[in-house]
Amino acid sequence: MAGRRARTGRGWDASPPRTGDPTPRPRRGRRTSDDESPPGPGAAGRADADQATDTPRDEAEVAREICLRQLAVRPRTRAELATALARRGISEETADAVLDRYDEVGIIDDAAFARAWVSSRHAGRGLARRALANELRQRGVDGDTASAALEELDESTEAETARALVERKLRTARGEPDAVFRRLVGMLARKGYPPGVAIRAVKDALAAQSAEAAEFAEQIDADALTDTEG
User: Fold this and answer.
1) Is residue 209 within 8 Å of 202, Cβ to Cβ?
2) Domains of the chain: which residue ranges?
3) Is the dihedral angle over the CA atoms 22, 28, 32, 36 positive or is it negative?
4) d(CA 230, CA 196)
5) CA–CA gap between residue 26 and residue 153 (Å, rounded)
6) pTM of the model
7) Spans of biased composition, class Low complexity (predicted)?
């Protein structure tokens, strides 16, 4: 077998590479944990940024943002803001601190809110003092503050508004005088007018509308009806 060329192989009998042959390249494979490079500074920076993003925000800052968003829609009472903060999970201690500060700088002012509410709702919707007092109470305005605001709406102004409301409705009212009378008195009652004010306003407006309505109005005893309602 001397004439046969020596067998090459991978082990001890492998022939050395001939001159000019390329140097064998190592096989590629997955690096082991020993030769893995540590993460660079960029990776560490991203991790720090992610951690900073997850850091919880200051509760007082969140509370202030909630209040300002509420106030951007319309003026609010302190009670309304406190309810909004509680609904968002703000602690009572933080809410009190933020609202106390807003009170100090005049951002919230229940007295000013009540005055503006009475003026706007009476002029725009024709609401009487009783209905306005109920609305202020629902918004958390205390009784003394509400009473002070309602004092600016006197009885004569309330009676004039009632009469104007009736006259406007009479322009499109249809039906017999007694049916119209009942509907209009009911309308004023829903707006918070006392029975006496409502009945007199409707009686006076009917008397000025037509001869038939005036004849019916003459039969109405406002004082007797008021006593019955009472």
Assistant:
1) no
2) 59-108, 109-153, 154-230
3) positive
4) 10
5) 97
6) 0.68
7) 44-54
- How far is it, in rounded angstroms, from Cα 123 to Cα 66? 31
Residue type, 152: E
Joined together, the tokens standing for residue 113 give 């809110």
For the domain spanning 109-153, the CATH number is 1.10.10
Comparison of pLDDT for 16 and 154, the residue scoring more: 154
pLDDT at 136: 98
Mean pLDDT of the chain: 80
The token pair at 81 is: 């803001």
51/136: higher pLDDT: 136
Judged against a pLDDT cut of 50, whether residue 3 lies above it is answered with: no
